[in-house]
Amino acid sequence: TTNHRIALIPGDGIGNEVIPAARRVLDAVAARHGLGFTYETFDWSCERYLSQGAMMPEDGLDRLRGHDAILLGAVGYPGVPDHVSLWGLLIPIRRGFQQYVNLRPIRVFEGVPSPLRGAGPGDVDLVVVRENVEGEYGEIGGRLGRGLPEEMAVQEAVFTRKGVTRVLDYAFSLAERRGGRLTSATKSNGIVHTMPFWDELVAERAAAHPEVAWDQEHIDALAAKFVLDPQRFDVVVASNLFGDILSDLAAAVAGSIGIAPAANLNPERDFPSMFEPVHGSAPDIAGRGIANPLGAIWSAAMLLDHLGHPEAATRVTDAIATVLAKTPVRTPDLGGTATTED
Amino acid sequence: TTNHRIALIPGDGIGNEVIPAARRVLDAVAARHGLGFTYETFDWSCERYLSQGAMMPEDGLDRLRGHDAILLGAVGYPGVPDHVSLWGLLIPIRRGFQQYVNLRPIRVFEGVPSPLRGAGPGDVDLVVVRENVEGEYGEIGGRLGRGLPEEMAVQEAVFTRKGVTRVLDYAFSLAERRGGRLTSATKSNGIVHTMPFWDELVAERAAAHPEVAWDQEHIDALAAKFVLDPQRFDVVVASNLFGDILSDLAAAVAGSIGIAPAANLNPERDFPSMFEPVHGSAPDIAGRGIANPLGAIWSAAMLLDHLGHPEAATRVTDAIATVLAKTPVRTPDLGGTATTED
Ligand SMILES: CC(C)[C@H](C(=O)O)[C@@H](O)C(=O)O
Ligand SMILES: CC(C)[C@H](C(=O)O)[C@@H](O)C(=O)O
After folding, report:
1. 3-class DSSP state for residue B104?
2. In sequence order, what are the beta bridge partners of A106?
3. Which of A157, A282, B3, B226 is within CB 3.0–4.6 Å of B36 for a Cys-Cys bond?
4. For residues A13-33, average pLDDT
5. Which domains does chain B have, with CATH numbers?
6. d(Cα B25, Cα B316) in Å, to the nearest integer?
7. Do A115 and B227 touch (CB under 8 A)?
8. Cα separation, B91 vs B76, whole angstroms
9. CB contact set of A287 (below 8 Å; sequence gap of 6+)
């Protein structure tokens, strides 16, 4: 047996319901594929913040460092401002562990109708590759003249050659492996310093991957095309903010945010990577046992793939597809009456 | 007769086809509503840039200043970088004339099927109010270490109390007039300086407009909801970048970018306002006489409304609705075979 150490951070709300479900799936897979998982569970969350003043301990990253991967549920809690909960846990892990690729596959499954008339099962099968550690999200900036009529806030977006190049290379290689095409999200017509730089680097990396067909679209037009013609996309590479928007949008196009998974990857494996469903902590339904576990389970499949077990991973995604196509088991977000446990 | 001086800037590509069509509609309306229009046409465009080195003359804004309104087609031309064409014409006009509101109404018309299964005629009727002169689009920023491994680009987003407050007040007043609701687009969980400031100002202006029900959504979730449940939105207020993305997305949800109009408003009327279809110059179909003129015609209706002729404006939008609902006349982008002229 290959043994892997997995850090579980259920977090808040339905995170505490979907992570145990994903763990059961991992254990079932382990039994059949000769794998072993040792779990350590961390109670890092908004609840911890409210009682102890911090989302995670000061040496949080050190405690995670020895694990092979992290499975995160969701963070967020009414009364705790989002920028506290996220910048106190999720974002420090992404950045501290150089998880510079946020990978978000989107598929239309049989049994989960897309809200789009024209999108049937198998039609949409794309991956958003989102830059995950720099760009528009940052701590550089601040306020001037608080409360005065002249008050202003500034926010600096920082794009580095190194940071952009590495995520582009990942995306081009992925497009190559998939035998597909790459689309770059830009906005160089409006955002005149960082986005033309992004475009230049895309052209540079494209030259280094001549076998990949590629194009680019401004984010406004691209968002529209995700609705008008999602079939045409394969690998879509985008900055931190644009990737965030496009991946939620694509998950909606596929009919459900509850199923969408994400992998925060450190491709060099210098640090553990982190896997988390795209959905949030959903305080409105938390505690009722009706959260959709498929986002967490698909995230666990991505974890298996990252740890070198692609067959086990495929077995899990095939199981998701089978349940959706061949059984009526569906949580309420998909119009069913099943529980998370079901 | 009330006489109005209108500046026409057809611009590039299909701008030269749709502006004459909109002008014919204005003239027809003028005859029936006792209005008079005097037009002055400006050849400012990428073609001008290629022959004379600038999109418009240095005193361009001065030449426009005496007009009551500006009707713009589209700018953009293969070979002229977008940031040249746009920052040389469109954006200087928006900013120089303090057109700080970009108003983009979106409707699902009978006869133009939405790509969404669940959206029928009349279901979706929303307005995106986009901040139009500051925010994420700006000239502050630059490059360091060009060509070096350490190269980086930075871009500063600037949000001012004055700039945000005025567009919010416009949006809240509009929601009040429509008897509707307001949704604010934010991303204060990721963009931690400017977006929490935006949220604070929204809460402040909401307190000043207690009769308007409002909420806020992060841009990623909001983009998803535009697809999953567009019916629920009425007035959506957003920053420059977010409004750009949401309005294209909403136009796609309504089934056509070719119909969507935009008004760049200076609500104080210190300067002329500018009206332009959302679509671009579409070099691929330019010159063939098949461009959809409805975006330009609806923009002309918004111009009429702004100049104090709401009945004439409604007459035009009613005519658009009638043509789409009761006749087969449709340009190829809507699946028909009609010409712009038809
Ligand atoms: C062309 C571009 C700069 C412009 C914008 O983003 O403002 C366009 O997309 C629009 O929406 O008018
Ligand atoms: C919660 C938020 C900061 C986060 C992001 O935007 O990165 C989330 O939307 C996501 O996509 O993981």
Report:
1. strand
2. A126
3. B3
4. 97
5. 1-100+257-342 (3.40.718.10), 125-253 (3.40.718.10)
6. 8
7. yes
8. 13
9. none
A28 CA to centre of own chain = 24
Residue among A74, A192, A204, A180 at smallest CA distance from A129: A180
Which tokens in the block code for residue B331?
Answer: 């340009």
Q: Which residues contact B196 (CB under 8 A, 6 or more apart)?
A: A81, A83, B188
Q: Residue B192: CB within 6 Å of ligand 2?
A: no
CA dist B303 to A80, B166, B172, Å? Answer: 45, 21, 21
Q: What does pTM read for this prediction?
A: 0.96
10-residue averages of pLDDT along chain B (342 residues):
94 98 97 96 96 96 98 94 88 97 96 93 93 95 95 98 98 95 96 96 98 97 96 97 97 94 97 97 96 98 97 97 97 96 96
Contact B152 A143 (CB under 8 A): no
Tell me the torsion sign for CA atoms B222, B226, B232, B234: positive
At residue A260, what is the residue type? A
- Dihedral over Cα of A259, A88, A10, A274: its sign: positive
B219:A245 CB<8 A:
yes
Torsional class of B150: left (φ above 0), alpha (ψ -120 to 50), beta (otherwise)? alpha
Residues of chain A with C-beta less than 8 angstroms from the C-beta of B232 = none
Q: Which amino acid is at A313?
A: A
Rounded CA-CA distance A243/A257 in Å is: 15
What's the sign of the alpha-carbon dihedral B183, B184, B185, B191?
A: negative
| A24 contacts: CB under 8 Å, gap ≥ 6 | none
Q: How far is ligand 1, taken at its centre, from the CA of residue A221, in Å? A: 10
